[in-house]
Amino acid sequence: MPAVQIWSAAPTPLQADLKVDLPSAERMIHDAVAGGLTGVFLGGTCGEGPWLPDRERARLVKAARAAAGDRLKIAAQVTDNSVPRILDNVMAAAEAGADYAVIAAPATMLNATPDRIAALFEEAATASPLPVGIYDLGRHRPIMIPLDRLKRIYLLPNVHLAKDSSGSIERREAALAARREKPSLTLLNGDEFRCLEYLQAGYNGLMFGGAAATAPQLRRIVDLFLAGRIEEAQALDAQTREVLFGIYGGQSIACWLTGLKHYMVARGLFSSSASYLGYPLTPECRAFIERYAAGQAT
User: Fold this and answer.
1) Nearest residue to 158 via CA among 231, 87, 206, 70
2) What is the pLDDT of residues 45-101, one digit of tens each?
3) In the chain, what are the domain boundaries?
4) What is the 3-class SS of the chain, one letter each residue?
5) Which CATH superfamily is 5-234 part of?
6) Distance in angstroms between the alpha carbons of the first and the last residue of the chain
């Protein structure tokens, strides 16, 4: 069986003025290398890509490439509301050193017919000078690639990977059907609360924000899975979910991104938990994060 990939859909370190904190980005990349990760996905949902100014996204990718060298793959989100804007973003990502351009559904789209949604992905992926990843959030976004067009998009020659955060069994089956026809397609699970389930279904690996905090557990889950020790993998998967709930503020995910960034601060990787999204940090969440980070340091 090919090696299972573990990617971090990385949070973006920001200064108080919401500009990218380059020293923190460098520390984050060095930590990802030390953690044995395959790559980092920059500017995704957890990375606040839809909110970052273009120049800041480019600074982030450039800093990550400089810190990583050839030790990590770097994917950058290039999502936008039209094909020309997407391709402008792809060129900026390529110039900054990204290996992949990742396209998700835009946050808004007028006249969003199935044909027009599919055409946005097909035209951008075909024209991209970088290999393309498709970021499928399914019903978690107002605009969604129609299920009956998903396989066709995955089979495009320039589509090399998919991050499936849809949580949909039907969309997972469409991805697996595409991979049967195109074995080179890398399928990455973006649902961090269903880690083992997607590995058992046949996905090639994992790509989610929580990997920044749980990489050791994820590597162990993968090792147990590959060794056929499924009950042990299931137990560790359940423990890892509880860690994520602790960092994110419970099953309501009340603290989400602020909790994850506070964890990075507690690890000494980020200088602040500043973000565009303004999630709270409850006393319970803060206490859990500081206990967990201290335990990792011992």
Assistant:
1) 87
2) 999 999 999 999 999 999 999 999 999 999 999 999 999 999 999 999 999 999 999
3) 5-234
4) CCCCEEEEECCCCECCCCCECHHHHHHHHHHHHHCCCCEEEECCCCCCCCCCCHHHHHHHHHHHHHHHCCCCEEEEECCCCCHHHHHHHHHHHHHHCCCEEEEECCCCCCCCCHHHHHHHHHHHHHHCCCCEEEEECHHHCCCCCCHHHHHHHHCCCCEEEEEECCCCHHHHHHHHHHHHHCCCCEEEECCCCCHHHHHHHCCCEEEECCHHHHHHHHHHHHHHHHCCCHHHHHHHHHHHHHHHHHHHCCCCCCCHHHHHHHHHHHCCCCCCCCCCCCCCCCHHHHHHHHHHHHHHHC
5) Aldolase class I (3.20.20.70)
6) 34
**Identity of the amino acid at 221:** I
pLDDT one-digit tens code per residue, 232-242: 999 999 999 99
Pair of tokens at residue 161: 């990977």
Q: Which residues of 12-33 are buried (b: 16+ CB within 10 A; e: fewer)?
A: bbbeeebebbbebbbbbbebbe
Identity of residue 149: R
Task: Give the C-alpha separation, 272 to 286, whole Å.
Answer: 14
Q: Nearest 5°: phi and psi at 20? A: -65, 130
Residue 148: how many CB atoms within 10 A of its CB? 10
pLDDT for position 172: 98
Residue with tokens 């951008």: 124
Tokens of 40: 């980092």
Would you state the structure tokens that stand for residue 126, as one six-digit string? 């075909």
Q: Counting Cβ atoms within 10 Å, is residue 36 exposed (0-12), middle (13-18) or buried (19+)?
A: exposed
What's the Cα-to-Cα distance from 273 to each of 55, 77, 218, 253, 279, rounded to whole Å?
21, 21, 24, 16, 10
Task: Specify the residue for token string 């500043």.
Answer: 274
What angle in degrees, to the nearest 10, is found between the helix axes of 147-154 and 114-127? Answer: 10
Compute the average pLDDT of residues 182-192. Answer: 97
